[in-house]
Design a protein that fits this description.
mainly alpha; 7 helices
Length: 191
């Protein structure tokens, strides 16, 4: 990594502190409450725009916009088809403004892989210690499971979906973000 000027060092410190605090806070919130609140994601989104304009000007704002389009847009589509949570969409939306499009893409790939790996190990652990049938009951939809022959399928609520989730998405996002930042650090400044 080349020697950084004072403004670049300040930029890097602000970036690492803000992104680090955000991802840690989101991961803790997701573990404890299984929800990522607007009061966390919306200010981070706004601060990300200020950061990009302040340190990178219009080029940073363009990179932030493309990052938001990629991260928020992709997870919004998944949320619309019922495959993700709204908090996850907001989490990536706020983070993508800070990361820009390229690092957002890497974080999405990495967090997806980490989430799949984590879910696999949680399911294996559960099957080993609780049994296959209890694991199946815990992680499958109760709306489909409790329907009797000839009855209409009950619609699953968001609360039902959250309760049967093996793990939240914020922890894999945090881990992937830190891995991507460390990997991309020699290329700083990114814009």
């Amino acid at each position: 990594m080349p020697e950084l000027t004072t403004p670049q060092l300040v930029q890097l410190i602000v970036f690492v502190l803000c992104v680090g605090a955000y991802t840690i806070a989101a991961a803790v919130w997701d573990i404890r409450v299984k929800k990522i609140p607007n009061k966390l994601t919306l200010p981070v989104f706004g601060l990300g725009l200020v950061y990009q304009i302040g340190f990178n000007g219009l080029a940073g704002l363009g990179d932030a916009g493309l990052g938001f389009l990629l991260g928020f847009g992709l997870l919004f589509l998944l949320w619309m088809i019922g495959s993700g949570g709204g908090g996850d969409v907001k989490l990536i939306g706020g983070l993508s403004v800070w990361l820009g499009w390229k690092m957002t893409g890497f974080v999405l790939l990495g967090s997806t892989g980490l989430a799949a790996l984590g879910t696999f190990f949680i399911l294996i652990y559960s099957m080993m210690f609780k049994g296959v049938f209890k694991t199946k009951d815990k992680f499958t939809s109760s709306a489909a499971r409790d329907v009797k022959k000839g009855e209409k399928l009950k619609k699953e609520t968001i609360k039902d979906r959250v309760a049967r989730r093996p793990m939240g998405f914020a922890v894999p996002v945090a881990l992937a973000t830190w891995l991507v930042i460390v990997w991309q650090l020699p290329k700083f400044p990114w814009v």
